[in-house]
Amino acid sequence: MRSLTVFPRLLRVASVLLAWRLDEIVETAHLFRPLKLVRPFFGTPRPDVDTLSRGARLRGAMTELGPIFVKAGQVLSTRRDLIPADIADELALLQDQVPPFPGAEARAIVERELKQPVTTLFARFDETALASASIAQVHAATLRDGREVVVKVLRPGIGKRIANDVALLRSLGELVNRWHPNADKIRPLEVVAEVEKMLENELDLQREGASASLLRRNFASGVDMYVPAVEWDYTTEGVLTLERVYGVSCDDVAAIDAAGIDRKALAVKGVRVFYEQVFRDNFFHADAHPGNVWVDLARRDDPRFIALDFGIMGSLPEADQYWLAQNFIALFERDYERIAQLHIDAGWMPPHLRVDELAAAVRTVCEPYFTRPLSQISLAELVVKLFRTAQKFELTLQPQLILLQKTLLNIEGVGRMLDPDIDIWAVAHPVLERILRERYSLRRTLKETRKRLPEWIHAAPQLPELVRDALKQAARGEMRNVSDPLALLQQAELARRQLRVLGGALLGGSLLIVATLLWTLAPQQGVWPPLVASVAGLLAFAITWPRRNRP
Question: Is 287 among the residues known to form the active site?
Answer without folding.
Answer: yes
